[in-house]
Amino acid sequence: MNLQRIGPVEFDFDRQVAVMAVVNRTPDSFYDRGATFAFDRAVESVVRAADLGADWVDIGGVPFGRGPAVSVAEEIDRVAPVIAAVTAARTDIVISVDTVRAEVARAAIEAGAAVINDTSGLGDPDMAAVVADGKAHLIVCHSLGAPRQEKPAAHFDDVVGEVRAFLVERVARAEAAGIPRGKMIIDPGHDLGKNTLHSLELTRRLGEIADIGLPLLAAVSNKDFIGESIDRPVGQRLAGSLAAMTVCILGGARIVRMHDVEATVDAVRMIEAILGMRPPVRLEHNTHPTHNV
Question: Which residues are part of the catalytic machinery?
Answer without folding.
Answer: 223, 257
